[in-house]
Write a structure and sequence with these properties.
By secondary structure, the protein is α+β, with helices and mostly antiparallel strands. It is built from 2 helices and 4 strands; from the N terminus they run H-E-E-E-E-H.
């Protein structure tokens, strides 16, 4: 019964629509882009295994622009600077 509830609780099925990379200092950080619905895109920023901030926006371009503007601060806040490239 619990499995049935979990299956039904999913709001949408996300579809991978692209992979882009952001640069910060000497790192190249992958961002997985998923279609959430007709007017929403999620970007999963793969900073480090187990550390994947997710940002939603109206388009892939908007998500990437937002992440590009905050990536240095995200890395600083998470203490991820100096980790070798992924």
């Amino acid at each position: 019964m619990a499995r049935d509830l979990l299956k039904r609780s999913r709001v949408t099925h996300q579809k991978l629509i692209g992979v882009r990379h952001l640069r910060s200092e000497n790192r190249r950080i992958p961002v997985l882009l998923f279609r959430n619905g007709p007017s929403s895109v999620a970007g999963r920023c793969l900073i480090h295994p187990g550390d994947t901030p997710i940002v939603d926006g109206p388009s892939a371009e908007a998500v990437l622009a937002l992440l590009a503007g905050v990536i240095d601060d995200l890395l600083l806040a998470r203490g991820a600077r100096g980790i070798s490239s992924i």
